[in-house]
Specification:
about 525 residues, mainly beta, six-stranded mixed beta sheet, globular
């Protein structure tokens, strides 16, 4: 059997990396342990949305206070609202929850057994837990949000305080706290943002351990260079370069951060595409101007910045950089924008872009490929894979879905010889179903060579001459035989035993695998014996 990949080194590592953007933290002096709640964020951006299905970025990390080693990492369905260590037991109470935007305040009371790692959800039904506090070894005080805000405009400022008693909290099972124990009158209950205080605490804890803390999040793109450099785009960073020594060479910052890196035709620069989301500013929603920059690989100098009137997705392949507009209102077809060192020219018309349907980033493309809908009234339907010629003309290759009765969402792709290997998911009105995610290899005439079905969507994929590497939002990493689609190996990605999730990956020219993670780190992995 082919050996599993080995993480040879980690770039961008630091304390508390596993929890993303911290929301709160508590220190237990008795056990010399730190618990931190945080959020890694979503795994979708304006140019691709499919990978977010079945994903949650909420995390609870438990760390040694001295060395800040991550001892436990727990996923949460909901944002972390409160944390409390039991006074004597190796047990952490976690209150989670959020307002669903319609009526309900949903969440959980999680009991994390620090020795075994077992997690128990103790409430009988979903209920936002605003605060938890141990009054004694037997008594746990909870502040619960109202169940809903139906006919209660004050619900967002209220809470229900209850005290739940148990002789042995480490024996509490799933959903065993009764409804009658949660009954209490509503009273004012403050919701406080503890993010700033938490960041100061983590900074101080890192300094006491002789380290520095600064959050890094979501590496959306990673690329290897012939000289051993590693380029990446991530939250807050349009592009950065790491030397073979492991030192960061240069960084170009951006308020929101880069989402794509596409090599310029001359090989000396890279095009970086920034995210631009709407923000509430005073009287309404505003969006910063789009930013697409050409950056010198050797120096990090921004050689030019394009500011089109609308944001877009960069499409790799050929000597020109192609941008597909996104986010413009209306139903009219869009026209591709084609850039080179001599300026911009208009490309052919394509159907309007849809976040979930038209993402189709093809690595190692010999020419640009896009997904194009054939129905003007519903451009997300009946999509075809379209190739662009050097003169800007377009040619339909084959329908994106090879199963006529299934609607397929777009996803990452790679060109191998005279074939495309691409991932995606099958639409279902009830959400993503078991076996509803796929990787498929098709020749350029549309013939299906093989398909591989899974339960979770792919976040990224790339290939070398004989293997397709696929990362999933579950944290899995799979290597498929490029010829027949059989599984060469399958593993759950981790760093020093703590799980993580790949958001981007690339096979470097040297043959190793580069992985950009949701928690801001870059892994260099050996995949050959």
């Amino acid at each position: 059997m082919t050996p599993l990949p080995i993480v040879r080194r980690v770039l961008g590592n630091g304390p508390f990396a596993e929890i993303g953007e911290p929301t709160l933290a508590v220190v237990d002096d008795r056990s010399r342990t730190v618990a931190v709640g945080g959020d890694l964020g979503a795994v979708q951006w304006s140019g691709s949305g499919t990978a977010d299905s079945r994903w949650t970025g909420h995390r609870i990390g438990v760390y040694d206070r001295e060395g800040l080693r991550c001892k436990r990492l727990v996923k949460s369905r909901y944002p972390v609202r409160s944390l409390a260590f039991h006074p004597t037991l190796p047990l952490l109470a976690v209150g989670t929850g959020r307002y669903d935007g319609g009526y309900f305040f949903e969440g959980e009371l999680l009991l994390v057994h620090l020795g075994s790692g077992t997690v128990v959800s103790a409430l009988p039904y979903a209920r936002e837990v605003l605060d938890v506090a141990w009054l004694s070894e037997r008594e746990l005080r909870l502040v619960l949000a109202p169940c809903d805000d139906w006919e209660n405009p004050e619900a967002h400022e209220q809470g229900h305080t209850v005290v739940v008693a148990r002789a042995e909290w480490d024996a509490v099972g799933e959903r065993t706290i009764g409804n009658e124990e949660l009954s209490a009158p509503a009273e004012p209950a403050a919701r406080s943002d503890r993010g700033a205080r938490t960041r100061r605490l983590l900074t101080d804890l890192a300094a006491a351990a002789g380290r520095q803390w600064s959050p890094r999040r979501r590496v959306w793109a990673v690329e290897g260079r012939e000289d051993g450099r590693v380029l990446a785009a991530l939250d807050g960073v349009l592009a950065e370069s790491w030397l073979p020594s492991g030192d960061r060479e240069w960084v170009v910052e951006d308020d929101e951060g880069g989402r794509q890196l596409v090599a310029a035709a001359d090989g000396t620069a890279v095009w970086a595409n920034a995210e631009r989301r709407g923000h509430w500013r005073g009287r309404g929603w505003e969006r910063d101007a789009p930013r697409i920059a050409r950056i010198a690989v050797d120096t990090g100098q921004v050689l030019e910045t394009l500011s089109p009137d609308v944001g877009g997705v960069l499409v790799a392949g050929g000597r020109r950089v192609v941008m597909r507009p996104i986010g413009r209102p209306g139903k009219r077809p869009e026209r591709l924008m084609m850039f080179d060192l001599d300026g911009r020219v208009d490309g052919p018309e394509v159907s309007r872009f849809d976040l979930f349907n038209h993402g189709f980033a093809v690595r190692r493309a010999s020419r640009p490929y896009v997904l194009v809908g054939t129905r003007a009234d519903a451009p997300h339907r009946d999509k075809w894979i379209v190739a662009l010629g050097a003169d800007g003309t377009s040619r339909r290759l084959f329908p994106h879905s090879w199963v006529p009765q299934e609607h397929h969402f777009g996803g990452p792709a790679v060109e191998i010889g005279q074939a495309l290997v691409y991932a995606g998911t099958v639409h279902d009105s009830q959400g993503l179903q078991p076996g509803g995610a796929y990787v498929v290899r098709r020749s350029l005439d549309g013939a299906v060579a093989w398909q591989h079905r899974t339960d979770h969507p792919a976040t990224a994929l790339d290939a070398d001459e004989d293997t397709v590497y696929v990362a999933y939002n579950s944290g899995a990493l799979t290597a498929l035989d490029a010829d027949n689609g059989s599984v060469r190996w399958h593993t759950e990605l981790d760093i020093d035993g703590t799980p993580t999730t790949a958001l981007s990956l690339a096979v470097a020219p040297q043959g190793h695998l580069l992985i950009g993670t949701v928690d801001g780190r870059i892994l260099e992995c050996s995949v050959r014996p």
